[in-house]
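[job 0412] stage=complex_fold ligand=fe (iii) ion status=START
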Amino acid sequence: MRVLLFLALLASFNDDEWQERLGRERYRIMRDKGTEPSYSGTYAVPGTSLVYLCAACDSPLFRSQEQYDVGNGWPNFTYPIAKESVYYLEDWSIGFKRYEVLCRCCNGHLGHVFNDGPPPKNLRFCINSICLKIENQE
Ligand code: FE
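[job 0412] stage=complex_fold status=DONE, emitting structure tokens
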């Protein structure tokens, strides 16, 4: 029940409230669809057994078991923790088609998904570290 009330509260946030909740840089990325500078985040290299939550709404999004290091300075994953934890939007903002990845619960921008990942799914979810937090940590 508390979780549902929390999500209902987030759904009612206006821009000012999001800015206050997320802070300037996280707001720029999660609500304005920005990208953090490469290597600016702390999760570029996979850790041990971690669950990554949405930094805005605490939904579980990714696990380090599906994370791999491609050397580009962002955390990359083969798949989200569950199919329904994220959704996708077509993004033409830099002149060619990409797929934006968003948090299903709070509509926060997370990053992009590409089709150059390892088999069998060949997916690479390239996610901004600042959009993630580790379970039980702030
Ligand atoms: Fe979220």
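Residues 2-136 form a domain with the Metal Binding Protein, Guanine Nucleotide Exchange Factor; Chain A fold (CATH 2.170.150.20).
[job 0412] exit 0
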